[in-house]
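Exercise: predict the fold of this chain.
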Amino acid sequence: MKEIVLVADDVLDTRELYAMYFTSRGFRVVTAIDGQSTIEAALAHRPDVIILDRAMPKLDGISVTRLLKSDPRTQRTPIIILTAYPYASIEGGALEAGADIFLTKPCLPEYLETRVRELLNRTPES
């Protein structure tokens, strides 16, 4: 069964780039355009990994991460937060909120795939 990657970004070009890339690499891809639709997609599709933009309308990536990590249905889902703003305070806030990985844009799809596969291959915590 194909692993599901949820790509959440309010920028259409970014969403399409990552969606096409991950589809071509054998993943099933679900996309979301804002924080609220990310939560809805995570609950509906139960992705194996979430790639989440930091700055989105309705709810930002850090707020979405906090909500997903506090919900028993999604708390174990790995989250990668991407941002174009590489400030240490944002990274700290993302990791403190529960993100597994924090990356800055631009982020090559090949590097993002490497990080996604690392998360998929790690041993779940008991």
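Check your answer against the key: The mean pLDDT is 91.
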